[in-house]
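Why run this: before we spend reagent on co-expression, it is cheaper to look at a predicted model of the complex and decide which construct boundaries make sense. The entries below are exactly what would go into the expression plan.
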Amino acid sequence: MTAPVLSLSDVQLSLMGNAGRVDILHDISLKVTRGETVGMVGPSGSGKSSLLMLMGGLERATGGSIQALGHDLTAMDEDALARFRRGHMGVVFQSFHLIPTMTALENVATPLELAGASDAFDRAEAELESVGLGGRIHHYPSQMSGGEQQRVALARAAAPRPDILLADEPTGNLDGSNGQAIMDMLFGLRDRHGSTLVLVTHAPDLAERCDRVITLKDGRVASDNRVVAEAAQ
Amino acid sequence: MIAWHIARRELRGGLNGFYVFLACLALGVAAIAAVGSVRVSIQEGLAREGAVILGGDASIAFTYRFAEADERAWMEAQSEAVSEIVDFRSMAVVERDGAVERGLTQVKGVDAAYPLVGDVQLVPQIPLSTALAGKNGLPGIVAQRVLIDRLALQIGDVLKLGTQEFVLMASLEREPDSAGGGFGLGPRSLVLTKDLANSSLLEPGTLFDSAYRMALPNGADLDMIRAEAEAQFAESGLRWRDSRNGAPGLSEFVDRIGAFLVLVGLAGLAVGGVGVSAAVRSYLDAKTGVIATLKTLGAEGRTIFTAYLIQIGILSAIGIALGLILGALLPILFAPIIEARLPIPAAFGLHTAPLIEAALYGALTALVFTLWPLARTEQVRAAALFRDASGPVRAIPRLPYIAAILIAFGVLLGLAVWFSGVWQLTLGAAGGILTSLGLLSLSAWLVRRIARRLSRAKAVRGHTALRLALGAVGGPGGEATSVVLSLGLGLAVLASVGQIDSNLRSAIERDLPDVAPSYFFVDIQNAQLPAFLERVKGDPQVSRVDSAPMLRGIITRINGKPAREVAGEHWVLQGDRGVTYSQRPTENTTITAGEWWPEDYVGPPQISFAAEEAMEMGLDLGDELTINILGRDITGEITSFREVDFSTAEIGFILTMNPSALAGAPHTHIATVYAEEDAEAEILRDVAADAPNITAIRVRDAIDRVTEALAGLAAATSYGAAATLITGFVVLIGAAAAGERSRVFEAAVLKTVGAARGRILASFAMRSAILGAAAGGVAIIAGGLAGYSVMVFVMDTTYTFEPFSAIAIVIGGALATLLAGLAFAWRPLAARPGQILRGQE
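The model came back. Tokens follow.
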């Protein structure tokens, strides 16, 4: 059996809100293997986005351990986590989260530059062309539509050829046709680069495109099904 | 009405987000209110204490002479009491253990009636009459602490003025009438005039002023008495002053410096205006959704504009009120400190006039700077709810709004001219502020373009922190414009002060001593002149000696008409001027028009007048001047003009006459001696031994006194500039705080894509430094232009760019922005990206 790229063991997450402590995730344990596509579904507030943030080291677990590519994310400080994400992880958000003061090209080139790539801008340009934005590389986010911005975000996440792609409801802010196009691109990129893809979504049809669907409920894993394998059987 | 309801509901959110707005307005208003309050306090103090400052209800002064018997009799007939004082410069000499110490002092000889009004304070606390009575058979003297320290004197020591010995009885702590006098080169000492009889200091022709202070009966009509005095002794050269304006020089000085500081305060308000404008803009940006919703519900553009105008109006009123409270309280709180530095007791308290002035400035500035962003509320479309709110909004408001802004600005400028009373200075300052704002806007635009261009340059690729910084400066939104404008204007004021101050100092400190003589000797009697010249000219270490006869006179008439009617308030007509005579022009004289009189000329008096001053006064060859010298009128014809350069500290006279015109008048001589420094002490000793009445004024000391006075002015101006800079810093903090949200987001995204905190911090620091340096750069250009204008057009001298203050300002600008930026970098760096980015989903 291949070694897991992500391994979560008894992971807990509690946050302090105005109303006191809120327990978000309870003792989550799961493994994701290399090349897998995992869809995470569940009702709002079930903790799926929080779980994705923990996998990306963007949020800090209050209990348990998270291993990514053999590294213990829970033992790393902020800077170590940032450095680890370079080249290993790409994240796509529902609200795109492009830096408004940078052009499309600069947004995409930034993670490559941070990873020390000498050809950051050439690769960024190629990545933007691959998502159909070759003609808009010098445009600022405010000059683009939502679908275009999400394509830039996709290019930014994929450009460093990450081992793991994390996507948090990437089509949540887009209309049907734009959402479909983005999902095609996301899976296309994943196929091209062989990355592991973990996807949070509300859309059942999207989840069905994954190898595996994990359903969360009240901060716990309610079910964990290997969709494609089961369907094939 | 509906607009009022909307405004009221919107204001329920409290003042959150408006602290910078309030601080900017309050600081600007406070600075102007405080300066105005101090000015009015001093003016009221001057008015209230007029009699004390003057030394009586009215004063009649003469140059060179005491009052004649008939003049004295007339004064005594008008008054309940008359006190005579005599004022002149001399050398205080102390012999101790065979060594001789000398110090220049401004001597005031008084009579038993002095002071008619007010009290003299001495340490030890003894009555003045006891002090001046002296002891051990010697008359007494009291002197200011500076002179006592300079000569290392103890109470009871003996010192000499001229040939008369005095015993030092006390130090002079407070002289009630000190503010009424002019600019003295030496510290004050006080003796009885009668004790100067044997000092050989008040010989005919000696330079001295006498003044007669009169205590008038209650209800005396000052105007009538003045008119009578001037009619009775029209040609006597008397100078009248009364308690309504006891210290006209000081009063005028306070007015001028007050007006100037208010203008500096207005620059501060302009800086605050930039902050106010930025705060309103960011508030309204955040309200785009609300405005769009209101439009969806049927609100017209005008209703929305009015609703937000009311809100900003209420906030402005709060800001102005805070500023007025601060500006009224500060002078009262600092009254003891300010009063300790003033020669007169000021009337500190609540003065409404300067508060009204400051409130008007505040309200108009708020209007000028907020109308533009307010007008843009009209252009928010309901579609903003469904589309990206940052979509294009027409940048320029409609014409009526622009007209309103221009009208408000015009009223502001008009008020400033009216209140300050010096229209050239006000318009110059307003021009300077506008030019600076224009330059700064242009520079902000350029910086953004260059940064945008550079962020795409191949050279910066791989330097992520720098590229991020350049991208942030050049990208859309951002704080570049408000930071460059606010900090830049504050720094521009400081740079102007720095350039002008250092240029003035170097003009005095560096340029002058190269050519200036070491000493001026005054009061050399005719009989003493040959011996004096023999001593100094025979000295191998003396390179040059110039001497000239010296009288003083007042120009009373030009072509038979009162001089001031013809030439206004020109400085040559204010008080008495030096007059000399000469058979032939000196070696260095350049005649610019007309001809010098023949060497043996004995006809009607002829005058050679300084060319530049003649032009300013509108004098022509052939004009007749009447000059009152020692109470006698001499009328002569201007037959030549010549160049007089006062900047070299050579002997220079506005008026030179042919010798026979002044032959009968008793006079002394003035001499300048250019000597090597180590020869100075010996020359002084020899001259003083032969002629103790001769006063030596060391040019270096005189320059130091002027520099000291200048330093005080520069300090006052620097405080004004500092207020502007503090406002600039508040705006900067405001901009940094407003930008914090976007930096938090940016840091979260950068962390997500792999940037460590050090690199993010470096990028934040670099963008601050770039903006600060840009603001500093423009400030230097603006400061240079202001410095050039003031030095060349106002001071009539040359301008040299002073690099040190300039460099300090650029570094200061970059550091200030850096500090403000870094103060708001903590949260972005500390925040977890997951929470931030999810919070925005």
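Chain B has four domains: 1-55+246-421, 58-219, 432-515+698-841, 542-675. Chain B touches chain A at residues 388, 390-391, 455-456, 458, 461-462, 464, 467-468, 471-472, 474-478, 742, 745-746, 748-759, 832-835, 837-838, 840-841 (CB under 8 Å). Bring this page to Monday's planning discussion.
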